[in-house]
């Protein structure tokens, strides 16, 4: 494939390596690979705002739309200091395979602003959010690109996005974003969807492996929305949560933690630090403590070639995007004792319920939470079964099976539609 210098960096290189491995399995000709891998569009914008002290600050914003072959693109928007075009492009690529695996009529997208939202006042956060959406208006729309929350953003930011877009359209357009508050067109069940989906598939894996949740332990790396919901749901199923962490501290206690109290503490203080400091452990050591279930629920590239041989879990449930590097995958492939639930399957609950929200907004007909969860689990079960059957039939890893399904669906759609001259 031709070299594309704009798309680079460790995260995009990781997405490219994963794609090349699956393309080899699927025997995709070299001349087809570039069109499947590289994004359709990438936007970089500057977002100037007036800070509270009267100074003008300029922030860089990004949006990458991977493909629009199956429908509009769909993906989150993250506010984080280390956001760059390569990371955003990789996340958009993964979202494409995730949506295709789930059978959703979307291509993948991702966006973000290089900023630490914790250093912004509420007013600054609002005007930066609105400015970003204003800059993106020519490139997004309910049938072009639908945004959602991600790291550093939340329901309130999505409401500001929706309001800004709506003001320019002269009417309320709730379907431009998902992950909104229920009061402004959001759906019941969206806030906890990713974490609930993670816990549901862990339950499926435990059933397949003959594990009793009441005798199982879990370590949750990352105690944000996804990690805390996963932990709380697993706890209610009887699993003992022996490790939790966030950016401020990692905690480990083989006797387990009261995760509901931990969640209440974080809701009040914003961080885990101070909850149980006597149980502090280094973040790197937390990942290699003995447990039945390890849930990386924070950022990319935490399971690496250095620690993949040291982890002591039976189930690795990838709640984060891209937590396991290709080097780690090669090691895990030699470890049949570890059951991997790959990220594009494991954390798909968020985009699935986002799809439900989009559909409900378009129809102006809303479902109750039981309907949302029932439909969510049906789609996740279908994906899990499909991945397991393909992995068994071809003798490949769960990750390669999941990626194979997603890539092949996008490839078939592109080949059927053809290449417009």
From TrEMBL:
Residues 187-418 form the Glutamate/phenylalanine/leucine/valine/L-tryptophan dehydrogenase C-terminal domain. GO terms for molecular function: oxidoreductase activity. InterPro entries: Aminoacid_DH-like_N_sf (IPR046346), Glu/Leu/Phe/Val/Trp_DH (IPR006095), Glu/Leu/Phe/Val/Trp_DH_C (IPR006096), Glu/Leu/Phe/Val/Trp_DH_dimer (IPR006097), Glu/Leu/Phe/Val_DH_AS (IPR033524), Glu_DH (IPR014362), NAD(P)-bd_dom_sf (IPR036291), NAD_bind_Glu_DH (IPR033922). Keywords: Oxidoreductase. The keyword Oxidoreductase applies. Belongs to the Glu/Leu/Phe/Val dehydrogenases family. This is Glutamate dehydrogenase.
């Amino acid at each position: 494939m031709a070299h594309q210098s704009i798309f680079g960096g460790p995260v995009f290189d990781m997405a490219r390596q994963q794609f090349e491995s699956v393309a080899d399995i699927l025997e995709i000709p070299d001349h087809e690979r570039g069109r499947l891998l590289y994004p359709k569009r990438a936007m970089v914008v500057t977002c100037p705002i007036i800070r509270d002290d009267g100074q003008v600050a300029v922030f860089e914003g990004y949006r990458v739309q991977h493909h629009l072959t199956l429908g509009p693109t769909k993906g989150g928007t993250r506010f984080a200091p280390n956001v760059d075009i390569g990371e955003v492009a990789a996340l958009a690529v993964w979202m494409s395979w995730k949506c295709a695996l789930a059978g959703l009529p979307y291509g993948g997208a991702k966006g973000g602003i290089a900023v630490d939202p914790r250093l912004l006042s509420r007013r600054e956060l609002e005007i930066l959010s609105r400015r970003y959406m204003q800059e993106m208006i020519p490139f997004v729309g309910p049938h072009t690109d639908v945004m959602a929350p991600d790291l550093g953003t939340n329901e309130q930011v999505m409401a500001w996005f929706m309001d800004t877009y709506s003001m320019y359209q002269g009417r309320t357009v709730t379907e431009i974003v998902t992950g909104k508050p229920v009061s402004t067109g959001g759906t019941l069940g969206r806030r906890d969807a990713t974490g609930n989906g993670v816990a549901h598939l862990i339950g499926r894996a435990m059933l397949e492996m003959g594990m009793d949740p009441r005798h199982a332990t879990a370590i949750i790396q990352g105690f944000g929305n996804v990690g805390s919901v996963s932990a709380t749901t697993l706890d209610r199923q009887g699993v003992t949560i022996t490790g939790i962490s966030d950016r401020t501290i990692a905690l480990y206690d083989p006797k387990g933690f009261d995760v509901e109290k931990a969640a209440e503490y974080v809701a009040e203080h914003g961080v885990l630090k101070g909850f149980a400091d006597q149980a502090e452990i280094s973040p790197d050591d937390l990942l290699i403590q003995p447990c039945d279930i390890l849930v990386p629920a924070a950022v990319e590239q935490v399971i690496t070639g250095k620690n993949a041989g040291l982890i002591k879990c039976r189930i690795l449930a990838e709640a984060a995007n891209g937590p396991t590097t290709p080097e780690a995958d090669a090691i895990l492939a030699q470890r049949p004792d570890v059951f991997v639930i790959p990220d594009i399957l494991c954390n798909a609950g968020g985009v699935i319920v986002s799809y439900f929200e989009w559909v409900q907004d378009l129809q102006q007909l809303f479902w109750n939470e039981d309907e949302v969860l029932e439909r969510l689990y049906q789609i996740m079960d279908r994906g899990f079964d499909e991945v397991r059957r393909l992995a068994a039939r071809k003798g490949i890893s769960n990750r390669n099976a999941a990626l194979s399904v997603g890539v092949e669906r996008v490839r078939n759609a592109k080949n059927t539609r053809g290449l417009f001259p």
